[in-house]
């Protein structure tokens, strides 16, 4: 049947991927995929928290401090500031 992968097909696909990318690049690819997943998770968490605290500060209050998202704890090379939206309209 079309669409079902057996163990032979999976092994064949893995061998082709290994030959295309080589043994050197596979760990780097896995590392970057993990970093991307961590960034996506932290962005999703930030968006979720943003939905709960979307009220603007009162006139006497301090504006919130700009957040920084890091790919991994202690990883300062890929840390970047988060641009908070300034649009206050409800969607």
Search tags:
91 residues, mainly alpha, 1 helix, 4% strand, translocation, transmembrane
Describe this structure in words.
It is found in: Cell membrane. Its main location: membrane. The chain crosses the membrane at residues 6-23. With 91 residues, the protein is mostly helical. It has a domain at 23-51. 51% of the residues lie in helices and 4% in strands. The chain has 1 helix and 2 strands; from the N terminus they run H-E-E. A two-stranded antiparallel sheet has the order 1-2. The longest helix is centred in the first third of the chain and has 46 residues, at 7-52. The radius of gyration is 21 Å and the shape is elongated.
What characterizes the major β-sheet?
2 strands, antiparallel
End-to-end separation: 46 Å
Strand arrangement in the largest pleated sheet: 1-2
Shape annotation: elongated
- SS class: mainly alpha
Tell me what portion of residues adopts beta-strand conformation: under 5%
Low-confidence stretches: none
Q: Radius of gyration over alpha carbons? A: 21 Å
What is the H-and-E element order? HEE
**Total strand count, please?**
2
Provide the helix percentage.
40-55%
Give the overall pLDDT as a whole number. Answer: 75
Q: Specify the number of helices.
A: 1
GO molecular function: protein transmembrane transporter activity
Main location: membrane
Subcellular location: Cell membrane
Function: Part of the twin-arginine translocation (Tat) system that transports large folded proteins containing a characteristic twin-arginine motif in their signal peptide across membranes. TatA could form the protein-conducting channel of the Tat system.
């Amino acid at each position: 049947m079309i669409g079902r992968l057996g163990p032979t097909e999976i092994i064949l696909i893995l061998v082709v991927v290994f030959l295309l990318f080589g043994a050197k690049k596979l760990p780097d690819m896995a590392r970057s995929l993990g970093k991307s997943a961590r960034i996506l998770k932290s962005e999703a968490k930030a968006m979720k928290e943003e939905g709960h605290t979307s009220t603007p500060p009162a006139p006497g209050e301090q504006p919130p401090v700009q957040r920084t998202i890091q790919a991994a704890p202690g990883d300062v090379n890929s840390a970047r500031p988060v641009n908070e939206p300034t649009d206050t309209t409800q969607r």
